[in-house]
Specification:
5 strands, 21% strand, elongated
Length: 129
């Protein structure tokens, strides 16, 4: 995706994946008074999602960037939770009526849970007041 934006008096070009462009735009434009969309080039799905979010947020680019980045992080959260649940289910085994977990798999679960907390922190940063 390629996005040209006017922040204040300066023109800025954001280029990369849809997700990275929205994150960068939010970080650059947060707290600025005037943010104007000049042009953008993207694939069809990205264009549709961007336009839909832009309309839903009243043509406010900062809120739109926040909403899209939050959507990506929420998707990652769900993916990680599903993976953790799957790993815990697979790691469990019974022995004489007691439940045990495979230590290696539980280390992987702890690693995923730390990534989960990191993503939650990023979502909190993206909240627009």
């Amino acid at each position: 995706m390629e996005l040209w934006v006017k922040i204040g008096r300066t023109k800025k070009k954001f280029q990369g994946s849809f997700r990275s462009v929205m994150e960068e735009l939010f970080k650059e434009a947060k707290g600025k008074k005037t943010v104007e969309l000049l042009s953008f080039h993207a694939g069809q799905k990205e264009r549709r999602r961007f336009k839909r979010e832009l309309r839903a947020n009243g043509r406010d680019l900062v809120k739109t960037a926040s909403a899209i980045a939050t959507w990506f992080y929420t998707r990652d959260l769900r993916r990680l939770r599903r993976r953790i649940k799957e790993l815990k289910k697979r790691a469990r085994y019974l022995s004489k009526g007691e439940v045990f977990y495979c230590p290696k798999t539980m280390e992987r679960v702890k690693e995923l849970e730390s990534r989960l907390e990191e993503i939650r922190g990023r979502i909190e940063e993206l909240k627009v007041g």
